[in-house]
UniProtKB/TrEMBL annotation:
The name this protein goes by in its record: Uma2 family endonuclease
Entries under CDD domains matching the protein: DUF820-like
SUPFAM superfamilies: Restriction endonuclease-like
Top-rank taxon: Bacteria
One of the Pfam families matching this protein, by short name: Uma2
GO molecular-function terms, A-Z: endonuclease activity
Organism: Leucothrix pacifica
Gene3D superfamilies for the chain: tt1808, chain A
Domain Putative restriction endonuclease residues, every copy: 16-179
InterPro entries, alphabetized: Nuclease_put_TT1808, Restrct_endonuc-II-like, Uma2
Length: 190
């Protein structure tokens, strides 16, 4: 990717994007031929992501699932998109490519004011097109709030909202209950 900058006006192929990401200094997301540089993450963002990873590790191991974070892309084939979610849980064979997942079970995005619109609209639509996905969580880094889009038995999506530190989230894929207190441990949220 020339200069490792966003290329909003240039269409590139998925293959060119994937090859370029292997050597890029900056991570990029790919949406239907367009490449966008990713924003930097805050310390708060990283603490929340770490809390999720720590809380899910044992349950993932016991369920035969793998946890990936920040540097592994998720491919949404229907929308010709590749994103770098903050946390991805994969519970089935996903050996198509060593640099992205096509069959995630659970995705977590830690959202900020600058990424909120994309997380709730563009990414939600793309992620929901992935047949293997059971849940997509959008976690606010500014206040105690987790919104979970959960695929129901009919294959449609329900929204569950959690905004009290006493709330518990029942996560699919690993049958894990996670409290908001655990999600926001060590984070100053008002």
């Amino acid at each position: 990717m020339p200069g490792n900058k966003s290329q909003h006006d240039t269409n590139i192929t998925e293959e060119a994007f994937l090859a370029g990401e292997k050597t890029a200094d900056t991570r990029h997301e790919y949406v239907n031929g367009h490449v966008y540089a990713m924003a930097c993450a805050s310390k708060t963002h990283n603490k929340i992501a770490r809390n999720f990873i720590t809380s899910l590790s044992d349950a993932a191991d016991q369920s035969g699932c793998e946890i990936y974070f920040s540097d592994i892309k998720v491919r949404a084939e229907k929308f010709k998109s590749y994103y770098y979610p903050d946390i991805v849980l994969s519970c089935e064979d996903d050996d198509e490519n060593d640099y992205y997942l096509s069959n995630p079970c659970l995705i977590v995005e830690v959202s900020s004011a600058s990424t909120m619109r994309k997380d709730y609209l563009e990414k939600a639509l793309s992620y929901q097109s992935i047949d293997s996905l059971k849940a997509y969580l959008i976690v606010s880094q500014d206040k105690p709030q987790v919104d979970m889009l959960l695929r129901n038995a009919e294959g449609t999506w329900d929204l569950q909202q959690f905004n009290d530190l006493e709330d518990d989230i029942e996560l699919p894929c690993v049958d894990k209950t996670l409290s908001l207190q655990a999600v926001y441990a060590g984070v100053d949220v008002r």
